């Protein structure tokens, strides 16, 4: 299958479209893993059963749910599962409540409003740049209207955050799975629950998580920590795009889908664990020892990150000697270091434990 | 890098990533992925028979300035390319504030080259070449118009910046034994046989 009309300007005859809509080389297409249809049907049935008793799975059978997310959500049900996992429906209803039930379609209302001119300009400029290698978004691809609608509606919904470039690829991935309105409410949940503060002015939450990552490197890979310190590599250099775009700049489908399956269930700790696997592996390599400057080392880490298969990531994530307590502790230390022990109104203390369960049942 | 809409910084596609790609990989990508975070490019060049490894950092904007690291990386840069788009007047109008930030945080000897990119799009030109020249003259910058698409002057822009830096090393303005200047002499691990040679790092910045 060759490019659709949408991509005409950028047609490259060597490109084919994979089953996820990404343009790849024929060699990449052949390397796709075959899916066992019987296993897939069985998983689909299990997920349909879970949808019909969702509350029970979240409250009492969360480990089962988590395990199924780790195995990968069946592609046909992925969008719906993300919608459920993020409690997007609850957020939609709460928005109606905020408008005293006078507005039945809050997304529709947002769509009739405009953010400031420079926000609008920035969104429009990025539409074709968020996924130039996907048939929905390349050139004047059919997905760009949805992307524009979602990003514009969010800027109206939260004018303080407005629009940040890293949001475009996140919305893009959602739109590959969900209609614009549903994608919007999942997008709101990502921004307000999962990675709250990542796009706020000053980017405090990102700085905290970057530093917490470095603290955890010291714990899981002291030798690597020593190299990072020796070459004065600021953790922002390697974590910023991983965390802010939820790894969409590093992984394409199907790996990014699998990562998001886990992320929607377990929250931001998945980002940390993947980052630590990549860092540990890269910094323990002989190439890392040869690096004599920060740029070469970060380039090595970024290159290395792309080489992992999803199975390698999963196995190594399991092998990390790290629990939720260590993660929370690293975040606490990072906050203390960054704010120098001051009481800080923008503390992100509660946010590190956000996952599907916490969003739905709290506590 | 990351661009965020604020009053001061319109996110801009002036072609920073495309210039870098043209210089390091000799190819043009009409629509480049959003650059989020920090991206780097590197290429070996030869000046006066000396092999020099250029390390290029893509890129800096107002938001990143809030990170201490950017300030430290600014200090550690020997050169910068300040890029605007000749078809978008507002990108040219932002140069003054960008230059102030760069000068404030960088080594005072940093070589800054002003680049008017997209010169292949002459029919849509909004900023005249003379205006770029005048701005560069006024602020003591080197000036060049480039096209990442046709590759016009791209090679020259990076190499001339490196040549200026090299000149400053020869004159003793930059002390290559002090890594704070972003310059390092020594064997490169990539090719340990070549022995001693200077390696400079240039930083490429955008006006956003």
Automatic annotation (TrEMBL), chain A:
The keyword Membrane does not apply. This is Rab-GAP TBC domain-containing protein. It comes from Didymodactylos carnosus. InterPro entries: Rab-GAP-TBC_dom, Rab-GAP_TBC_sf, Rab_GAP_TBC_domain. Keywords: GTPase activation. GO terms for molecular function: GTPase activator activity; small GTPase binding. The keyword Methyltransferase does not apply. The lineage of its organism: Eukaryota, Metazoa, Spiralia, Gnathifera, Rotifera. Residues 72-267 form the Rab-GAP TBC domain.
TrEMBL record, chain B:
InterPro entries: P-loop_NTPase, Rab_GTPases_membrane_traffic, Small_GTP-bd, Small_GTPase. SUPFAM superfamilies: P-loop containing nucleoside triphosphate hydrolases. Residues 182-208 are annotated as: Disordered. Signal peptide: none annotated. GO terms for molecular function: GTP binding; GTPase activity. Pfam families: Ras. PROSITE patterns: RAB, RAS. This is Ras-related protein Rab-2A. Belongs to the small GTPase superfamily. Rab family. It comes from Didymodactylos carnosus. It comes from the Eukaryota.
């Amino acid at each position: 299958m060759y490019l659709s009309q949408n991509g005409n300007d950028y047609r490259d005859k060597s490109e084919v479209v994979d089953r996820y809509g990404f343009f790849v080389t024929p060699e990449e297409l052949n390397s796709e893993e075959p899916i066992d249809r019987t296993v897939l049907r069985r998983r689909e049935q299990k997920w349909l059963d879970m949808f019909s008793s969702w509350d029970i799975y979240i409250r009492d059978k969360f480990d089962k749910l988590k395990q199924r997310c780790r195995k990968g959500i069946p592609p046909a049900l992925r969008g719906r599962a993300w919608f459920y996992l993020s409690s997007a429906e609850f957020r939609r209803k709460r928005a109606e409540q905020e408008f005293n039930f006078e507005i039945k379609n809050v997304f529709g209302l947002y769509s009739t409003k405009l953010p400031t001119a420079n926000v609008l300009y920035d969104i429009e400029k990025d539409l074709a740049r968020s996924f130039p290698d996907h048939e929905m978004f390349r050139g004047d691809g059919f997905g760009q209207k949805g992307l524009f609608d979602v990003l514009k509606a969010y800027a109206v919904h939260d004018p303080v955050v407005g629009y940040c470039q890293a949001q475009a690829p996140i919305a893009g991935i959602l739109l590959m799975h969900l209609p614009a309105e549903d994608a919007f409410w999942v997008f709101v949940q990502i921004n307000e629950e999962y990675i709250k503060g990542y796009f706020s002015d000053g980017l405090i939450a990102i700085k905290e998580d970057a530093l917490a990552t470095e603290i955890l490197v010291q714990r899981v890979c002291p030798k690597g920590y020593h190299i990072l310190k020796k070459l004065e590599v600021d953790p922002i250099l390697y974590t910023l795009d991983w965390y802010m775009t939820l790894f969409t700049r590093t992984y394409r489908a199907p790996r990014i889908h699998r990562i998001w399956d886990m992320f929607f269930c377990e929250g931001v700790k998945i980002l940390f664990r993947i980052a630590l696997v990549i860092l540990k592996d890269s910094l323990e390599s002989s190439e890392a020892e040869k690096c004599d400057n920060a740029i070469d080392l970060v380039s090595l880490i970024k290159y290395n990150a792309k080489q992992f298969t999803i199975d390698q990531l999963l196995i190594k994530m399991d092998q990390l000697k790290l629990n939720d307590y260590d993660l929370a502790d690293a975040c606490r230390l990072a906050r203390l270091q960054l704010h120098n022990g001051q009481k800080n109104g923008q503390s992100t203390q509660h946010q590190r434990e956000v996952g599907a369960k916490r969003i739905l049942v709290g506590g | 890098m990351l661009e965020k809409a604020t009053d001061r910084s319109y996110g801009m596609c002036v072609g920073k990533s495309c210039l870098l790609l043209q210089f390091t990989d000799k190819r043009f990508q009409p629509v480049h992925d959003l650059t989020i975070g920090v991206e780097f490019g590197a290429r070996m060049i030869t000046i006066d028979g000396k092999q020099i490894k250029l390390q290029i950092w893509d890129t800096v904007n107002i938001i990143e300035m809030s990170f201490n690291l950017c300030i430290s990386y600014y200090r550690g840069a020997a050169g910068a390319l300040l890029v605007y788009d000749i078809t978008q007047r507002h990108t040219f109008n932002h140069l003054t504030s960008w230059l102030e930030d760069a000068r404030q945080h960088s080594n005072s000897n940093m070589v800054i080259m002003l680049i008017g990119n997209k010169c292949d799009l002459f029919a849509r030109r909004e900023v005249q070449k003379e205006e770029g020249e005048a701005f560069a003259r006024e602020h003591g910058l080197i000036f060049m118009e480039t096209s990442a698409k046709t590759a016009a002057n791209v090679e020259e822009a990076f190499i001339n910046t490196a040549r200026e830096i090299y000149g400053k090393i020869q004159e003793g303005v930059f002390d290559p034994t002090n890594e704070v200047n972003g310059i390092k002499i020594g064997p490169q691990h990539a090719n340990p046989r070549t022995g001693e040679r200077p390696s400079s790092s240039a930083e490429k910045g955008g006006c956003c």
